[in-house]
Amino acid sequence: MRLLGLALLGLIPACQSDETVAAYGASGVTWTLVSQNGAPFAARATLVFGEDGQVSGQAPCNRFTFTNTLPYPWFETGPIAATKVACPDLEAEDAFFQTVGAMTRVVLGDDGMVMANDAGGEMVFTASE
Questions:
Q1: Which of 54, 87, 83 minimizes the C-alpha distance to 69?
Q2: What fold characterizes domain 17-128?
Q3: Measured CA angle at 112 (ends 26, 31), to 5 deg
């Protein structure tokens, strides 16, 4: 009986579900940045939340990926891997990467997604096709 109990305890981690933002409605949606720190974001940047905490997207110039494994509503980027293509929007891209790297929370709502941090930083996204 004791061995059965230990065997069942070993299965508990396998039964736990995804607790990241993807599991709370963000998965399978392309999120387009509309404003950053209270100002409209003129360039185009997107986020896509995938399985196992994978996040990818298109910054103004480059594709990127990182992992967020924190439980919802918490958020962190971890190291960001990005392609290295130059374009006229590199300044907007740098600002995007710095800001998304500073976000610590995500809130999903009917009208979109908001990322924020304790320093007052904010990114507002809408779902796009």
A1: 54
A2: Lipocalin (2.40.128)
A3: 55
